[in-house]
Specification:
Order of helices and strands: HEEEHHEHHHHHEEH
Distance between the termini: 30 Å
Number of strands: 6
Radius of gyration: 17 Å
Largest sheet: 4 strands, mixed
Helix content: 40-55%
Amino acid sequence: MYKKGVAIGVIVIAIIIGVASSLSSTETVNLDMSRTHGTISTAMGSPVLGDPSAPLTIVEFGDYQCHFCEKWFHETKPPISMDYIETGKANLIFIDNSILGRDSFAAAQASYCAEDQEMYWEYHDLLYNSQEPEINGGWANSERLKAFAFSLGLDMELFESCLDSGKYSKRIQYNTQQARDHGFRSTPAFIIVGPDGQQSISGAQPFSTFQKVLDSMI
């Protein structure tokens, strides 16, 4: 059993290294290839929001065109940020589960192009604040994604080169596969990882649901 676990671990690490090596070295952020939380490889996910040494990690699987993800972003995430992330009790990592179409895939890539310029979370937040009702209706197409970058003051030559090249396409594919591997077929979905295990939460649940789970795991 131990040997099987080691073998699986080696395979996962090899896949991560393979994906990372396919990314252009120009302006690429330094990824921690060994970063895992519970059963999840978070190596290709977002930067950590909050204290990396916090006892709890909230892993969010989301899609930028998902209306329930946007609902969670506006209604549930703010009190979690105030009560848990800003107080050092928990941190958060976003894993792309880009399942709603071409614009979801492009938006996820754009977020990592912004990360190249240390603006991941600012771009991430802008996407959810700019979401429109129609899925694949154009609000997150290439031109709009570039306009969002311009509004944040990013170096547009670097950003456009990154986005147009599809530099992070394999990173998004890897993250979406992580969601599938954990049985998530819809968004949002969450895994809360603590020192003694992990618990899953499906859907845009209210703050009270997260509070109950988080408090029980601290």
